[in-house]
User: Which sequence fits this backbone?
């Protein structure tokens, strides 16, 4: 009886260790499908980039542990990004920093590279003029560079999940 129990437990253990692996063709199909969905979101100008790491101009990079994101919905931007760096001319208490909702002033795209799109837009949140440069790769990975008039520049790394927007 004990041998049967050991044999059954080993069988369950080995069957649980087996994982289904994708073939190279399946990986290419999945990558193409992801690229298509990402490009559809970028074409529609309705996307959300979830940020997971930030790189201040001064000091070391830091992991972001909260739910920070940059959302573009048509002609509106919703920036909910942490800020670390020097501020030169801001309201007492720090002001809005990079947490605000506002209209996009200028929006342009560079699609000269086949595997990525570079988007640049600006906004004025009432305290500062801010230029966002967003590079989105076909796999959904994204880099955000934020250039402010009254604060140090800062960069973020994140991911654009095509199915993540819109959330009602």
Assistant:
């Amino acid at each position: 009886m004990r041998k049967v129990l050991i044999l059954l437990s080993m069988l369950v253990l080995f069957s649980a260790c087996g994982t289904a692996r994708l073939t190279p063709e399946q990986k290419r199909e999945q990558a193409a499908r992801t690229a298509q969905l990402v490009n559809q979101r970028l074409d529609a100008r309705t996307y959300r980039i979830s940020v997971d790491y930030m790189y201040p101009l001064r000091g070391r990079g830091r992991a972001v542990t909260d739910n920070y994101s940059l959302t573009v919905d048509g002609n509106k931007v919703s920036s909910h990004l942490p800020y670390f760096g020097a501020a030169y001319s801001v309201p007492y208490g720090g002001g809005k920093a990079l947490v605000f909702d506002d209209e996009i002033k200028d929006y342009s795209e560079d699609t000269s590279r086949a595997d990525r799109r570079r988007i640049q837009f600006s906004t004025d949140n009432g305290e500062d003029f801010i230029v966002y440069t967003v590079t989105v790769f076909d796999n959904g990975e994204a880099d955000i560079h934020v250039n402010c008039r009254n604060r140090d520049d800062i960069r973020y790394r994140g991911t654009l999940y095509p199915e993540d927007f819109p959330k009602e």
Observations:
- The chain has a mean pLDDT of 86.
- The first helix runs from residue 2 to 17.
